[in-house]
Amino acid sequence: MTFDFDTPVERRGTDSIKWNVGEDEIPMWVADMDFKTAPAVVRAVTQRAENGVFGYESFPENWYDAYIGWWERRHGFHMERDWLRFSTGVIPAISAAVGVLTQPGDSVALLSPVYNSFFSLIRNSGRQVSEVPMKRTRENGALSYMIDFDALDAALEEERTKVLIFCNPHNPTGKLWEKSVMEKIGLLCEKYGVTVLSDEIHCDITDPEKRVLPFAAASEINLWITATFLAPTKAFNLMGLQTAAVAAADPALRKKIFDALGDLANPNAFACTAAVAAYTEGKAWLDALNRYIRANKDRVTEFLKVECPALEAVPSEATYLMWIRTSAAAPSSDHLHRFLRKNAGLFVCPGTWYRGDGADFIRFNTGCPRSQLDEALLRLKSGLERYSPDAQVD
Question: I want to staple 277 with a disulfide (CB 3.0 to 4.6 A). Which of 22, 44, 185, 379 is the partner?
Answer without folding.
Answer: 44
